[in-house]
Amino acid sequence: MGVAVEIAGWFGATAILAAHLSVSMGWLRAGPRFQAANLLGASAFIINGAHHGAWPSVVTNIIWFLISAAALLRYRRGTKRANRPPGTPTQKCKPATNADY
Fold first, then answer.
1. Residues near 69 by Cβ (< 8 Å), separated by ≥ 6?
2. CA distance 79 to 91
């Protein structure tokens, strides 16, 4: 089991760092694939950290996991507010017509 836990830890590190690098370099948009990589990476870090008794890391990655899970749920519902700049409306407004006045 020790080897599997170490592999999980390295997988988690690779997933999170690859996602961060991809978004930072502009190769990937901070969308569902980015959040999925963070969710999987955090899950692997939780397993590895718990095995090693690294509780601050475990708590941090539980929070990381929850943030990614919430973002993925928002994407699934079609509310992509997490990827919009602040102040961007969530729905497009229809143009006003003479019937509106």
1. 39
2. 10
Structural tokens at position 101:
């006045």
Q: What is the pLDDT of residue 32?
A: 95
How many other β-carbons are positioned within 10 Å of the β-carbon of residue 24? Answer: 10
pTM, entire model: 0.73
pLDDT at residue 92, rounded to an integer: 58
Give the chain's residues under pLDDT 50. none
d(CA 28, CA 51): 32
In a domain, 58, yes or no: yes
For the chain, the average pLDDT equals: 87
Residues 36 and 68: their CA atoms lie apart, in Å, by 7
In a domain, residue 48? The reply is: yes
User: Within a domain: residue 37?
Assistant: yes
